[in-house]
């Protein structure tokens, strides 16, 4: 008999097809009466397939008494109630490492785009302004100071690429890491005050919510730029909008927001921001690798093998 898996929302076709073939797959998002579905099938469900946004709540887990594993397509698992899962002995996996290069690549692209004003240059040409005058001079990344909030797998890939751009690199985290060639700051405000760019790539959690506070943003200042490729919850978005609007913060390149897909409308008219629709890992190669990890983690669990990427 096939194990019963509850898929919370639509995942990529690779995952849906594989899970439909190998398991008794229940598509939760398609159910007209979700409560009735859980009442009828909850005791039989052994696994949940979800992503970093949909997650899995304690309330949902409580409806699934025989749940054994939650597999998450995404490196972030803050939407999964990890405490509830651990209390129940439910395994949780995510899809780290395979997206590090894609996110790091996009981060540098965002920095270049904001620094060299690439979107504005594109519009300058399209609107015929170049026929009348040369585009104004911009800044550059070479020699600039960058502070990385969260020197994990992705943070290290970003740092390596910043090195290639001849930037000076610092980082902030809970503790200093051994054998890293970059300057460590135990105080985030102090690092923000000393750098030109602040890149946010720390995990989203209750502990990190609002970590990039108004004080941090004010320390970054009118010549500093914020880049967020982590979670919108890490940044005080109200303060961010106010400081960008008033010119007290130099600029921001944002791939994530507090209430996605809703983006503060006040940002739309600003010329010192670059706005992306959370596409850090959105490449064909990376999403395929993430999807395969979802499939492989489920297969390993039900075969009694060690999980490939368990959440610690």
TrEMBL record:
The keyword NAD applies. GO terms for cellular component: cytosol. Keywords: NAD, NADP, Oxidoreductase. Residues 108-280 form the D-isomer specific 2-hydroxyacid dehydrogenase NAD-binding domain. InterPro entries: D-isomer_2-hydroxyacid_DH, D-isomer_2_OHA_DH_cat_dom, D-isomer_DH_NAD-bd, NAD(P)-bd_dom_sf. Residues 8-311 form the D-isomer specific 2-hydroxyacid dehydrogenase catalytic domain. One of its GO terms (molecular function) is glyoxylate reductase (NADPH) activity. The keyword S-adenosyl-L-methionine does not apply. Belongs to the D-isomer specific 2-hydroxyacid dehydrogenase family. PANTHER family: 2-HYDROXYACID DEHYDROGENASE YGL185C-RELATED, 2-HYDROXYACID DEHYDROGENASE-RELATED. This is Lactate dehydrogenase-like 2-hydroxyacid dehydrogenase. It comes from Limibacillus halophilus.
């Amino acid at each position: 008999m096939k194990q019963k898996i509850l898929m919370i929302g639509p995942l990529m076709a690779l995952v849906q097809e594989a899970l439909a073939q190998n398991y008794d797959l229940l598509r939760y998002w398609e159910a007209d009466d979700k409560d009735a579905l859980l009442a009828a099938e909850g005791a039989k469900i052994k696994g949940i397939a979800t992503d970093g946004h949909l997650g899995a709540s304690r309330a949902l887990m409580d409806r699934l008494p025989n749940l054994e594993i939650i597999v998450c397509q995404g490196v972030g698992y803050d939407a999964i109630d990890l405490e509830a899962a651990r209390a129940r002995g439910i395994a949780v996996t995510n899809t780290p490492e395979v997206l590090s290069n894609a996110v790091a690549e996009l981060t540098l692209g965002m920095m270049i785009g904001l620094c060299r004003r690439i979107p504005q240059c594109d519009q300058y040409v399209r609107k015929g302004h170049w026929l009348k005058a040369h585009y104004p001079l911009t800044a550059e990344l070479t020699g600039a100071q960058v502070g990385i909030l969260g020197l994990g797998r992705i943070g290290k890939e970003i740092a390596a690429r910043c090195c290639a751009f001849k930037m000076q690199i610092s980082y902030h985290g809970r503790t200093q890491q051994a054998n890293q060639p970059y300057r460590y700051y135990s105080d985030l405000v102090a690092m923000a005050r000393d750098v030109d760019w602040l890149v946010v790539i720390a995990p989203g959690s209750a502990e990190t919510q609002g970590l990039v506070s108004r004080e941090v943003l004010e320390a970054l200042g009118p010549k500093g730029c914020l880049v967020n490729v982590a979670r919108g919850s890490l940044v005080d978005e109200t303060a961010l909008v106010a400081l960008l609007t008033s010119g007290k913060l130099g600029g921001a390149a944002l791939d994530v927001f507090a209430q996605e897909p809703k983006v503060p409308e006040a940002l739309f008219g600003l010329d010192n921001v670059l706005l992306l629709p959370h596409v850090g890992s959105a490449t064909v190669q990376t999403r395929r690798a993430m999807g395969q990890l979802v499939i492989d983690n489920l297969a390993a669990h039900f075969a009694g093998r060690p999980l490939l990427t368990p959440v610690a």
